[in-house]
Amino acid sequence: MSTSGTGPRDGLHTLGRWTTDRSLATPQRTAIDDRGCTLSYGELERRAAGLATGLTAAGYVTGDRIATLTGNSSDHVVVFFACAKAGLVLVPLSWRLSPKELAAQLELADPQLLLVEDELESLAAGACTLLAHRPRTAALGPGGIEKSVPPPSRSVSGGRHDVRSDVRDDDPLLMIFTSGTEGASKAAVLTHANCFWTNLSLSRTMDLGSTDVVLAVLPQFHVGGWNIQPLLAWWTGATVVLERGFEPGRILQLIAERRVSMLMGVPTQYLMLAEHPDFASAELGSLRHAVVGGAPMPAPLLRIWHRRGVALSQGYGLTEASPNVLCLANEDAARMVGYSGKPYPHVAVAVADPVTGEILDGAASGELLVGGPGVFAGYFRDPAATAAVLAGDWLRTGDLVERDAEGYIKVVDRLKDIYISGGENVAPAEVEAALLAHPAVAQAAVVGVEDERWGETGVAFVVIRPGLATDEQELLEHCAAQLAHFKVPARIEMVGALPRTALNKVLRARLRQQLDGRGPAGHPEHPAAALPADGGRR
Predict the structure, then answer these.
(1) CB-count burial class (<10 Å; 0-12, 13-18, 19+) for 437
(2) Among 281, 283, 322, 395, which residue's Cβ finds the most Cβ atoms within 10 Å?
(3) Which strand ranges, in their side-by-side order, compose the sheet holding 342-343?
(4) What are the two backbone dihedrals, phi and then psi, of residue 74, each rounded to the nearest 5 degrees?
(5) Is the pTM here over 0.85, yes or no?
(6) How far apart are CA 384 and CA 382, in angstroms?
(7) How high does pLDDT run on average in the chain?
(8) 307-321: buried (b, 16+ CB within 10 Å) or exposed (e) per residue?
(9) Is 35 left (phi over 0), alpha (psi -120 to 50) or beta?
(10) Bond before 99 cis per omega within 30 degrees
């Protein structure tokens, strides 16, 4: 791909073109349904183009970053496409952060402008008071930024400014902060080409057309809030129903009332829906494709949805891949429960030995590598972290996977979450799946901790379902009946809730911190030695 910008075809993959094309083809069709307030494709193009012109006239130039602090809204979508048209970078920030955490992300992103939704003004103000160089702020919406665009606030770290008027394929478009489950989050830079190709890949496996209705429940500060269904919907002329929160009863109602045909969520959200009293009688006939990502989906929960006639299928992706990597076709959803499927078109994958880095052929277990035009441009102002994950033509995911002889891939766990007990590798996800099979366990998370005898042993944190009773011994015996001896946790901690990120990923580092100074209980034998022998075989 040309990076000079001089080629006659450069810029064909820029996303600012999408609303222009749709407004010509279907100007009256509804693009966004935002809590009952609709925006047509013609209106979306008019507002986005007007804002792009205003930003350029005010002095914003290619590569300038526009940060936002807002819930899901049509105004936010207008800003996204305005940035796409003007060559600017949208940096959507999480409203779930503390002022200190938000300030750290603002300091790294160094935006020229921060757009804030009214109800989040106090959070933004608290974060900005902690910054040495505060960005210029403005209200988000037609009565704010679109009415009067303030000039950029050039900070001392602003660097060189590109005064190009054209927008190129390799220009950055989105800067998404990673979830930071193990430490400080990093800012992943996604270009126009990254977003174009990941949506093209999605379109080749997801039959999403102009008559579809997409329910968008993932927050727009997450890559899935854009590149898993919503952007593809706006490319093809479909309608996107934006939802700001996740209340299971309301979601079930929206599916029926809006005739929702497409949905993307994380396992916790599908669990909340399945446990709602109205789930068994809810009208789900319009929902022809639902995708789960963000974490492995428990097989029993997948089967619950399959019994309701919904082809709920596991997918896999990561922010650094824009994010779409693996998908499971509808016809394979029941047969390949637990698998994430095969790579999307235009996505290359490989399985590598975690120690030697050797690429493995055929059925294999190892680290998943990803290649192709969806792989991100790098972490913003962090060359060391970028170099650590980009190896030649491959993106190192850090995820341990198993690939079968047919090429289907199952994500086992994060490599850094794997612990070694008595010389045997243990994947926390496998132990968690065993615990979740117990009827009294609602949630489970397992971490490895140091052990003088075995090197490491597992400690499980479990949340018990309301109205059901169990204890540590019963759960340990349950695990011993399903798992190899060395995989059974050393002990089980009953907790009221698990610490999670905004996308419901478990914060294992925080669980380990809870154990600091306490250490695992001593065991004269391996953790499960006292349990029945018939449950300890591999």
Answers:
(1) middle
(2) 322
(3) 316-317, 324-327, 342-343
(4) -65, -35
(5) no
(6) 6
(7) 88
(8) ebebbbbbbbbbbbb
(9) left
(10) no
